[in-house]
């Protein structure tokens, strides 16, 4: 079952969590000598029912992230009247590109040109271009999603040329439990990669990095999108529906 807010106490907790997160993000931005409005919170609502999203939206939250299509698509449909901005943050499989292209505003996990080409071809003609980030395996972990840093620029140039995508930036997911110093080095490496790519003619403006455990370090190192679920909604059911 998805987790839904059961009463006003849960709604109050959600409001308190969202307020605290915004204060922490703003404080980290100031500590990094950045403006407070330069970071967008993407509320990761996977494992939580539409009611929780509706509650967060009522508090002013606009961006939501989902990883499981079979869970996300009914949720998006139920909440369509709210005009929310939906981010697909999971691994993008070839057999799911059409649904992503048709239903989401952002996709964060492009790591192959074939996937980007399918998303571009399947994006509806009446929709705005799909906002896209390339997922970089910044620590070169075996078996993990993402392109190696060395191949990122070539992929970015190819994705940039696709007609129904708008390449916005880079995304990463770090290994767990390494500590703040190691995490900051990795986030800084992704920022440096973005700068190198931009020096060759692109204009990437987005760094999607940082989750509940490490978003403060990500913001200090230049994150513009942070993907936060547990710290906002609480524990979730990790098993996808269907």
Strand-helix topology:
Elements: H1 8-31, E1 40-44, H2 50-58, E2 63-66, H3 69-78, E3 85-88, H4 97-103, E4 106-110, H5 113-122, E5 130-135, H6 149-160, E6 165-171, H7 180-198, E7 206-208, H8 215-220, E8 225-228, H9 230-233
Parallel strand pairs: 1-2, 1-8, 2-3, 3-4, 4-5, 5-6, 6-7
Helix pairs in contact: 4-5, 6-7
What can you tell me about this protein's structure?
It is a single chain. The protein is 42% helix and 16% strand. With 242 residues, it is an alpha/beta fold. It has one domain (8-232): TIM Barrel (Alpha-Beta Barrel), CATH 3.20.20.10. Strands 7-6-5-4-3-2-1-8 form an eight-stranded parallel beta sheet. The radius of gyration is 17 Å and the shape is globular. The model has no long low-confidence stretch (mean pLDDT 93).
At CATH level 3, the topology is TIM Barrel
* CATH domain class name: Alpha Beta
The parts where pLDDT drops under 50 for at least 5 residues are none
- If classified by CATH, what would the architecture be? Alpha-Beta Barrel
For the biggest sheet, the summary is: 8 strands, parallel
CATH superfamily: Alanine racemase
Mean pLDDT: 93
Alpha carbon gap, first and last residue: 11 Å
What is shown here, in short?
With 242 residues, the protein is of the alpha/beta class. The chain has helices at residues 8-31, 50-58, 69-78, 97-103, 113-122, 149-160, 180-198, 215-220, 230-233, and strands at residues 40-44, 63-66, 85-88, 106-110, 130-135, 165-171, 206-208, 225-228.
Features:
242 residues; alpha/beta; TIM Barrel; 8-stranded parallel beta sheet; 9 helices
């Amino acid at each position: 079952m998805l987790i839904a807010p059961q009463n006003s106490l849960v709604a109050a907790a959600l409001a308190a969590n969202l307020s605290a997160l915004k204060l922490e993000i703003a404080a980290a931005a100031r500590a990094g000598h950045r403006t407070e409005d330069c970071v967008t919170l993407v509320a990761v609502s996977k494992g939580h029912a539409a009611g929780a999203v509706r509650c967060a939206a009522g508090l002013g939250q606009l961006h939501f992230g989902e990883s499981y299509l079979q869970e996300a698509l009914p949720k998006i449909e139920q909440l369509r009247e709210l005009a929310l901005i939906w981010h697909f943050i999971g691994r993008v499989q070839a057999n799911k590109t059409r649904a992503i292209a048709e239903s989401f505003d952002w996709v964060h996990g492009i790591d192959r040109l074939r996937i980007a080409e399918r998303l571009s071809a399947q994006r509806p003609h009446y929709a705005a271009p799909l906002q896209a980030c390339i997922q970089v395996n910044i620590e070169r972990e075996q078996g993990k999603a993402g392109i190696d840093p060395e191949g990122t620029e070539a992929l970015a140039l190819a994705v940039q040329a696709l007609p129904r995508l708008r390449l916005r930036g880079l995304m990463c997911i770090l290994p767990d439990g390494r500590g703040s110093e190691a995490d900051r080095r990795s986030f800084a490496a992704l920022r440096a990669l973005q700068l190198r790519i931009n020096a060759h003619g692109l204009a990437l403006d987005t760094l999607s990095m940082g989750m509940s455990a490490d978003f403060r370090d990500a913001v200090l190192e230049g994150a513009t999108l942070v993907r936060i679920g547990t710290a906002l909604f609480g524990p979730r059911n990790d098993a996808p529906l269907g």
